[in-house]
Structures are given as structure tokens and as C-alpha cells.
Amino acid sequence: MQYAGVDEAGRGPLVGSVFAAAVILPEQYNLPHLNDSKKLSEKQRDALAILIKEQAIDYAIASANCEEILQLNILHATMLAMKRAIEMLSVTPDKILIDGNRIPENLSYQAEAIVGGDAKVPAISAASILAKTARDAQMYALHEQFPQYGFHQHKGYGTKSHLAAIEQYGIIAEHRRDFAPIKRWIEKNN
């Protein structure tokens, strides 16, 4: 049975898109230290992402942007990104295994949600790594445009330094307007 693992990255940050990836691994692969992306260093994730892309039968990475997050809310935007990644696969899996406790609506595949799947199912671990490295790449690109926010360090999360930068420089178009700290800044400054 050929299955695709699916996971997301970037639900919690205050800025940027939420990313999802779908990965179909072969029966035999060589991915040392494959694990949930949160349990790996950035260097390990970057190295594994290259190997996953080389060895996967198929993979896809998709996102939902901050406008979609605002329109749908973060949960539904995450489901949209997952559905996009699944639909972008060129190889048809027999089943989809999704990290977490929810399955995107109207999938044309048999699917199962697995809580903690990113640490239990290798294809979900691989998807978590591809989603996380794609999201990090977006943060590095934003850092190039807006170095004053320090996106390369906090990756868009609501750290003290990020909140201080928002106070000093305001918000950018990629900030998520429905997230509490951003909402408060908008209310205070309008």
C-alpha cells in the first residue's frame, strides 16, 4: 500500500503563510535521523530536505497566504494548504496519513488523522521537514526585505524581539491581522 504523509508548518507565527507538504516515500530509503521537524536542528532539517526530495517517490509543498488566513482563520487555511499539497501530487497514493486530529474536507482520497504522526510515521516526518524548511525559506526572504524585524532568528513567532520591532516599525502586509498581538497593534494605532 502506497501512502502519502502530510504535515504543516507555521500555524503559530504572527507573520507569513502556513505551509503544508505531502510526501510518498519508497519502501527503502536512506534518511538518517528522520524525525518530527521540531526535534531536529535547522542544519539537520536542511540536509534531510534535500535527501527527501531526492528519494521520495513524489512530494508536493503548498501554502495558504496571510490573506487566506484572515479570510478563513488559521485552522481552515491550514486545511486548505494540506489539501493543495495533496492535490499537487502527481503519483496517486492509496491512502493519506495526516499529522494531527483533523482531515481536510472533500478529499478525494481515503485519509486518516494520526495524533503525533510526525514522530511515528516516516512519511509524515518527511512532510513536516519539507513544510518547515519551505516556511523557513519564506522567513529568510522576508528578512532580506525587512531586516529590522529579525525574521531570520524568530521565524515570525511572537517573541519579545519581534513584538518590540512591531512597536518600533509597525506591521507589514505579511503580518496576520487576525492574530491577537497584531490586532491589538492595529487597534492602538488606528
Give an overview of the whole structure.
With 190 residues, this protein is of the alpha/beta class. The protein has one domain: 2-Layer Sandwich (Nucleotidyltransferase, domain 5), CATH 3.30.420. It has eight helices and five strands. The chain has helices at residues 42-55, 66-72, 74-88, 117-120, 122-145, 151-154, 160-169, 180-189; strands at residues 3-9, 18-24, 58-64, 95-99, 111-114. The protein has a five-stranded mixed β-sheet, with helices on both faces. α1 packs across α5 (122-145) and α2 (66-72) packs across α3 (74-88).
| Physical arrangement of strands within the biggest beta sheet | 3-2-1-4-5
**Secondary structure: helix percent:** 40-55%
How many domains is the backbone divided into?
A: 1
Count of DSSP H/I helices: 8
Protein topology:
Elements: E1 3-9, E2 18-24, H1 42-55, E3 58-64, H2 66-72, H3 74-88, E4 95-99, E5 111-114, H4 117-120, H5 122-145, H6 151-154, H7 160-169, H8 180-189
Parallel strand pairs: 1-4, 4-5
Antiparallel strand pairs: 1-2, 2-3
Can you describe this structure in just a few lines?
Helix content is 46%, strand content 16%.
Highlighted features:
single chain, 190 residues, alpha/beta, Nucleotidyltransferase, domain 5, 5-stranded mixed β-sheet, 8 helices, 46% helix
